[in-house]
Each structure stands twice: as structure tokens, then as C-alpha cells.
Specification:
By secondary structure, the protein is an alpha+beta fold. The chain contains 3 helices and 6 strands, in the order αβββββααβ. It has a 3-stranded antiparallel sheet.
Length: about 190
């Protein structure tokens, strides 16, 4: 009886050891990440940023593949949270001006059109796909591009450009005041 007990005990210990080793090896994961930053181009800019706005939008993407006269449907959905910082700026390198040192006059000939730049941040927080209709790299790229387009439309409707235009007028007025105190006349175009 004691002999059987030893065999049972040894069998249980070996069984527990095998289960432990199998469990441990099945839960291991190997992650390998590599990143290289390459500077493509560096440019000097003369931009006057006058307004920033912070926007967020919930973007939904849904697509269904239908087969057998629309009787069978394989659907995929994605919910994205799109946040973005929008800046309205004026590229001063595109501005023309004339300086008359005799009359101490600086004339700003034209102001460039305002430029809107958006720094988007896209987070996927729910992806639902079927076995026969899964997301591809092209789908992700299309969703990202469409989400940024929707965000740009939202920025255009927000009035951020008109607020920047008002801020530009105030800034140009301040430049005229500083110029006057320094003995110069600054002539600005109608904005």
C-alpha cells in the first residue's frame, strides 16, 4: 500500500510539474520592436500663429460585404476618437512690404491668406470584424484619412479663421503703435 502511495505521489508531482511547464510556456510572448527616426527635411519658417483650437470627434466606420443576393452579410465596424490641435497661421515669407527710409514708412503691401494646420491624434477604441470581412491596412489608412477630413471640415465651420483674422487686425494695430513710438509709420492693408 505504501508502495502505491509513493507512485501516486510521484505521479501527481510529475503531472503538476508538466502542467506548470505547459502553462508557463503557453503564456510567454516575445515582443520585438524597432524604430528608426529619419530626418527628411528641415526648413526655416516665418509663420505667425494667431489662434489654436482643440477639437475632438467620434468617427464611426461601417462596411458590410454581402453575398448570395444580399442574404448573407459579413460586417465590420470601427469606432475612432479623433482629437486634433488646429492652428491658424500666416506665412510671413509670402508677405510683401516696402520700406521708405526718407519718410520712415513701412508699407505692408499684402497679407497672405490664413493657413490651417491640424495635428491629429487618432485612437481606435472598438473594432468589430467578422472572419470573412476583416480590416486591412488600406482600411486603416482610409479611416485615418477620412477622419482627418471630417476634422478639417469641423475646423472650417468653427469660426477659428475669423477669430484669427480679428487677432491679426489687433496684432497689426499693435505693430502700428510700436512703429509710431519708434518714429516710423506702418501702413497696413485692409484685412
Amino acid at each position: 500500500m505504501m508502495k502505491n502511495f509513493k507512485f501516486i505521489l510521484i505521479g501527481m508531482v510529475l503531472g503538476a510539474l508538466i502542467v506548470f511547464c505547459m502553462y508557463r510556456s503557453s503564456n510567454s510572448s516575445a515582443i520585438n520592436e524597432n524604430s528608426e527616426v529619419i530626418i527628411e527635411r528641415i526648413e526655416a519658417v516665418k509663420k505667425l500663429v494667431l489662434m489654436e483650437g482643440y477639437f475632438s470627434e467620434l468617427y464611426t466606420y461601417q462596411e458590410a460585404d454581402k453575398y448570395f443576393y444580399n442574404l448573407i452579410e459579413f460586417e465590420k465596424k470601427a469606432f475612432l476618437l479623433v482629437k486634433g490641435k488646429a492652428r491658424v497661421s500666416y506665412d510671413l515669407s509670402k508677405m510683401d512690404y516696402q520700406v521708405d527710409e526718407k519718410t520712415k514708412t513701412i508699407t505692408l503691401v499684402n497679407m497672405p491668406a490664413p493657413e490651417v494646420s491640424i495635428e491629429p491624434e487618432i485612437k481606435y477604441f472598438d473594432l468589430q470584424e467578422s472572419t470573412f470581412n476583416s480590416f486591412s491596412t488600406d482600411d486603416y489608412n482610409k479611416m485615418n484619412a477620412n477622419a482627418v477630413i471630417k476634422l478639417k471640415e469641423k475646423v472650417e465651420k468653427s469660426g477659428l479663421k475669423s477669430m484669427a483674422r480679428q487677432k491679426l487686425e489687433t496684432t497689426l494695430n499693435d505693430i502700428q503703435i510700436v512703429g509710431k513710438e519708434l518714429g516710423w509709420k506702418v501702413v497696413v492693408p485692409k484685412t
